[in-house]
Amino acid sequence: MAQDWIDAARSGMGLKIARKLDADILETLVRPQFTGYFEHKFCREEPAREKLITLAREFAVVPISGFQVGALAIGKSGNAYLGANMEFTGVPLHAGLHAEQSAVINAWMHGEPAVEALYVSEIPCGHCRQFLLELHAAEELPIRVRGVQKNLAELMPEPFGRRRAKGQGLLDSSPSEVVKIHPDDGNQTQRAINAASRSYAPYSKSPEGFIIETINGQHFAGRIAESFAFNPSVPAVTTALNQMNLSAQRKVSISSCTQARLATALTQSTAFSEALMRGICNVPVKSVLMESAH
Ligand SMILES: [Zn+2]
Predict the structure, then answer these.
(1) In angstroms, what is the span from residue 77 Cα to ligand 1's centroid?
(2) What biological-process GO terms show up in the record (predicted)?
(3) Of 2, 82, 90, 162, which cross-links 279 as Cys (Cβ 3.0–4.6 Å)?
């Protein structure tokens, strides 16, 4: 790659760390199709992973605290998934997404069946430790913070909840079958339903999907990821915003939003999604109703 192109890419990224990145990492990062992860060839060694955590911090959206946290989830494939905290104005503080959640959700949205290690720039808070218990074999998950490694069992010696059996954790559970009630009126509807069907909703049994479309025609899907303790659960809208934020399209304007939910859902976050999106863009959230196939 020509040096002048690298220099131009670095200056145009809006990421302070870009000047310090190796050319091969930068080349991946500046591709329009970048979706927030690096292939295993870039992150086999510890120094490369440490550098990617510093990069992940740059993706943080922190209008309230100004406190950037970066995370990196190493998937079973060996690929490294970025994670960064997100805060939202105009809604309660607990609407925020933590970097550890962001990285694990990023790995999940890319189809990773397991996370084999988690790197974080700060020690995980109690909320994140609780969220991570949704992974199968969570207690053995190595968590590395500034060169010190512990597993989740050490950080969470008296866990709340029960272990997720193999095939029933956040990353490895099977899709649920949902069908829509109203006639299909476009691809966006089907995308939202597809996203919902891959939800992790073992506690409410109320899957939901969310699709963000950008003005340049890109789509970002989100789905709900629940926690046994309820509060650390991540709604579909937040998952979709996370995937957009970690991608090369994070600064592109949003043109439409679609949410799919069960008509009979005990819990649903349409009002929350609308409040959240109102603070981000002036685009209404279209709601699609589904019914369970069972
Ligand atoms: Zn946290």
Answers:
(1) 25
(2) nucleobase-containing small molecule metabolic process; pyrimidine-containing compound metabolic process
(3) 90
